[in-house]
């Protein structure tokens, strides 16, 4: 089993910034892709960003505002969120998968999930 634990969420005003962290433990591999999905109330879970093999990938809605990075020594992935908008309000889920391509498929195919962390953007 692989466990993923998110931290860093909270309440921020529009235009502000937050950084989310996701620490992985258990049986994992440096070759795994890691990244983030989010789910707002009444909406489906959607892809946000991913790191795979040193490359990064972003949903159009966050491109230019969010940055995903990975610390291999700590087995931790980060999501730096700048210029936040009320539309970014959601529960953010860390994810890990053997295949980067799964991040472009329906969320059900993802191998491992964190419990999620709430990000609320006001005004």
What does this structure look like?
- With 123 residues, the protein is mostly beta strands.
- The protein is 0% helix and 53% strand.
- It has strands at residues 2-7, 10-13, 18-26, 33-39, 46-52, 55-58, 66-71, 76-81, 90-97, 112-113, 117-122.
- Strands 2, 4, 5, 6, 9, 10 and 11 form a seven-stranded mixed β-sheet that branches. It has a four-stranded antiparallel β-sheet with strand order 1-3-8-7, with no helix packed on it.
- The chain is globular and about 40 Å long.
- The model has no long low-confidence stretch (mean pLDDT 94).
Kindly report the oligomeric state of this protein.
single chain
Secondary structure tally: strands: 11
Give the overall pLDDT as a whole number: 94
State the major sheet. Answer: 7 strands, mixed
Task: Give the topology, please.
Elements: E1 2-7, E2 10-13, E3 18-26, E4 33-39, E5 46-52, E6 55-58, E7 66-71, E8 76-81, E9 90-97, E10 112-113, E11 117-122
């Amino acid at each position: 089993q692989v466990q993923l634990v998110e931290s860093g969420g909270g309440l921020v005003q529009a235009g502000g910034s937050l950084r989310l962290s996701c620490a992985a433990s258990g049986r994992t591999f440096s070759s795994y892709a890691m990244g983030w999905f989010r789910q707002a109330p009444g909406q489906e879970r959607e892809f946000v960003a991913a790191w795979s093999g040193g490359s990064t990938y972003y949903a159009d809605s966050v491109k230019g505002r969010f940055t995903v990075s990975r610390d291999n020594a700590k087995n931790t992935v980060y999501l730096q969120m700048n210029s936040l908008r009320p539309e970014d309000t959601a529960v953010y889920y860390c994810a890990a998968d053997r295949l980067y391509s799964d991040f472009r498929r329906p969320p059900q195919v993802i191998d491992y999930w964190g419990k999620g962390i709430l990000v609320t953007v006001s005004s």
